[in-house]
Structure formats: structure tokens, C-alpha cells
Amino acid sequence: MDDLSAHRPALSGVDQSSVLLLAPLLAEADPPRHVPRPPGPTGAPGPDGLCGFQWMAEHVPAFRVPGRRVHVLTSPDHFYQTMKARIKTARRRVVMASLYLGTGQLEQELVDCMEEALLRSQENLKVSILLDYTRGSRGRTNSRTMLLPLLRRFFSQMRVSLYHTPDLRGLLRLLVPQRFNETIGVQHIKVYLFDDSIIISGANLSDSYFTNRQDRYVLLENCSEVADFFSDLVDAVGDVSLQLQPDDSVTTMEGAVHPYHGDRQAFSAAARKRIMEVVNRAHVRQQLLEGGADDDTVVFPLVQMKPLGIQIDEQVTQRLLTDAGPDAAVFLTSGYFNLTQPYMRMVLGAGAGARFRILTAAPEVNGFFGAKGVAGAIPAAYTLIARQFYGQVCLQGQQGRVHLHEYHRSQWTFHAKGLWYYLQGQDRPCLTLIGSPNFGYRSVHRDLEAQVAIVTENAALQIQLQEEQQALYQQASEVSVATFERPERRVKLWVKLLTPLIKNFF
Fold first, then answer.
1. CA 360, CA 289: separation in Å to the nearest integer?
2. Are the CB atoms for 440 and 449 separated by under 8 Å?
3. Per residue in 417-461, pLDDT tens?
4. Are 250 and 162 in contact (CB under 8 A)?
């Protein structure tokens, strides 16, 4: 739900009543406790060392890269300018996966960069764009209308795929209002790829993400195997998505099951098969390859698509949280604090004694702050969830081990998500998670998500990651009992009553 705040609309009385239509999807927010987890480190193949995280190589592809080719981008503008420059110089492929493309001047400049690259390439360049159908089709001017002129001019070189969740179908699809339908599930992967270089991020292609919306971004420079994997992954999701045509209609690929007219189980099974082919093929290939002498860093791609029966990221994240060793430090951040019940239990019950510092948005830097109608109450709902979590921390006497922080920055909003892992006795992190998941119910159960676990023994890269983590936390203050006692933190009764019903959707 993180990006529904763009162009914040007022929700009418009709919109509010639409919650009733979602009763079939108001499932228990606490999934089964016994989720299968990846195999342990005993006998695990893959690169040696890896700070004790070599067990990931048994479960997912392990891409060995030199740490000097991994760069942390430091600001929204750095992210935006890097994308523009890379698009302009791309020779073979540009692959962009995002929730949506905005409709402002900055977004138009990105489209113009694509046009310039396509014109220069003399038909050698291929452009593939994957967006969410519901978010990308919202309003008269939208992601589709932004891309149609380019698609019409370069149809043989360009593909625009619009993923439609199979859960939005039938009466639900007809009756849920346009601005509310994306709560059912969206394409949420954020991957920006230019030839053999790739940016992994949580940021969308919209003006606020290029100016004053704090996110995270990592550039992997000339890492062809990682780029190939994510290009193949976007292709696979694109193959089960609707294809935008030059007349603004959409069609399915030949032989594909329609996401909402076709059989729900048949669509999910076919989509899972197509996507897992990419993961499994890369997994087998990487196990056969030897790393180079300077390959001191490993990139593990983690995919989560629960509507399609894929839950790799969930399993790996649970293992990381459960196995955090004595005196390890875990810094976890999410723009929207709504941890799943299993994640929350693992943080609060970390038997090994790891220290957790969790960073989330203060109400005034939440993307919904100041919105009209029901949307304006969303920051209060997150405040309620944070207060309940902090209450559990205090009740269990975990204040010395689990700390909650809030990000503050005037005229900015906060959207950063991910994790930094410091081993016992280490001053710098050796692992980070970065990508689209927010660690909440939506990320685990409703949306298509992807992130990477980067494990590194490269000192310079560890310093970059440490500086990134510290820069975010320096803009934060730690939560205490007094935080929730302030008058502006009082949560209205109707918000308290509604939050348990709707927390599965954000």
C-alpha cells in the first residue's frame, strides 16, 4: 500500500463502505507458525566464508561479484540522475519494473531519455517496462498514457506489461472503487536495469521519489549475471501480465491464462511455473560456476509472490530474524510499520539475544499525512500499531534489546525499507536486505515483491552500508512511553476499531 498516497484522493462514503466487499479477503493476519525454512548451513554448497550466511546458497541463486562494483546511491536526485544517464547510454536493453510511472515533468524526462536511446540505437535497443495494472491505469492521465506515444513509435522494440492480481476478480473487481482496488494486491517489484548494470530499490518512478521521498538504492555495476537474472524475472512476470497495445487496449500473451477472467488456480499455477523456472535455472547455473579471485561479495535474489505460491523471501527473512546470534545487531527499517505476527514474534522472542533497532516513519513524514477522508487516518493507524508493538516490548521487558525509532525530516516523506546485519563484535554490517518488501502483511501475502540479500566481506562496501544506515538513523528519534502520550498521538476510537479490520491491506 506504500504508494497509494500519490495524488492523495478524498475517499467518499461509497469508498468507505467498500470495506464490506472485502470480507472474503479479510483473512487472519497471523499466518501459520510453521512455515518451511531454508536448509541449515551443514553441508551447504556455495561460497565459503560469507559471514555464516552460506545457507542461502542452498536455497536461492548466489551471484558472486566484486564488492567494488556495488555502489550505494545516497539521495533521490542521485537515483534519478543515475537512471537518466544510464538510459541514455544503454545499447542493448533497458528493463524497468515499478508499481507505476508518474505523470509529471520529471517522469516525462525519463520517457524522453528512452526515446533518445531508442532513436540512437538503430533498432538494437530493447525496452521492457513492467507496471501494476490497477495503479498504472488510475485516472485519465496515467502510466499508460505516458508510455503510449513511445509504444506506438517503437512497437517492435518496446514492451509494456501490466500485471493484474488474480485476487481482484468477479464482483469484487466490479464494485471496489478504482483508488481502492490496488489494496487487493499489486506488482510491487522495483528494478531498473541498463545493459549489465542494475539498480535495486524500493522507489517508484514518480517525482517525489526523485526529489524529497527518502528511499534506498543500490547500483550493481557491470554485474551481468545479476542483470540477466532480473531481466529474466521481469520477462517472466511480464509473460503472465496483460500487454499494452498501441490503441491503449490490453491483451494476454498467446496461450496465457487471463488473470481475472480465467481460472484463478490455473493462472497462479502457470505463473508460478514460469517464474520459478527463472529462479531454478539460475540456481543450478550458479552452483556450477566458480567465483573470481576478487569476488568478495555475494548477491542472493529473494522473491516473494504469495498469491502465486512463491514465498522465498519470507522464509529467508524468518531465518535471519530467528537465527540472529548473541550480541548481533539488526537494524530494520520500513516506511510503514506493520510487521507480520511471525516477524513480530521473532523480533520479540529472539532467544539468541540479538539487538534490534527498528526505524519507521513519524506520522508527519508518512506519505498519507494530511490526506483527506479515511486516507488521512492511516498515519494514526500506523501509530496505533507501533504503540501496540512498543507495549509488547515493555510488557516482555525487552526495552534494552529492542528499540523503536521514528524518522523526522521537514518537507520530506519516508519510504526506506530493508535491513542491515552486524555480526557480534563487528563495527560494520556484512549483510543488507534491499528492495521492495516492507516486512508487513501486504508484502508477505498480497503483492509481488523482490529484494536482494547482499553479503560482503569487502571493507569499502561495508563502510558504504554503514554510512547509509547511520545517515537514516541520524534523522530519527527513539520512541518512549512519552511519545505516545503526546496529545497529537491520540488515536480516535473509530480508527482503533477499524485498524484490526484493514491492517491486512496495508
1. 39
2. no
3. 999 999 988 999 999 999 999 999 999 999 999 999 999 999 999
4. yes
Could you report the per-residue pLDDT of 192-209, keeping only the tens digit for each?
999 999 999 999 999 999
Q: In 139-289, which residue ranges form alpha helices assigned H by DSSP? A: 143-153, 170-175, 178-181, 207-211, 224-239, 264-288
**Residues 76/210, Cβ–Cβ less than 8 Å:** yes
CA 481 to CA 401: how far, in whole Å?
Answer: 16
- Distance of alpha carbon 401 from alpha carbon 100, whole angstroms: 38
Tell me how far apart the alpha carbons of residues 53 and 47 are, in angstroms, rounded to a whole number.
10
Dihedral sign (CA 85, 74, 424, 450): negative
**Do strands 402-407 and 476-478 pair parallel, antiparallel, or not at all (unpaired)?**
antiparallel
| % pLDDT > 70, the chain | 87
* DSSP code at position 444: I
| 56 DSSP 8-state letter | G
Please indicate, yes or no, whether the overall pTM of this predicted structure exceeds 0.85. Answer: yes
C-alpha cell at position 98: 515499478
| 414/310 Cα distance (integer angstroms) | 28
Q: Which residue has the cell 506493520?
A: 338
- Helix-then-strand count for the chain, H and E: 17, 21
For residue 40, the tally of other CB atoms under 10 A from its CB is 11
CA-to-CA distance for 393 and 207, rounded, in angstroms? 37
- Cα 425 to Cα 300: distance, rounded to the nearest angstrom: 24
- Catalytic residue numbers read 188, 190, 195
Can you tell me the distance from the alpha carbon of 310 to that of 315, in angstroms, rounded to the nearest whole number? 10
Alpha carbon distances (Å) from 165 to 267, 406, 448: 10, 32, 9
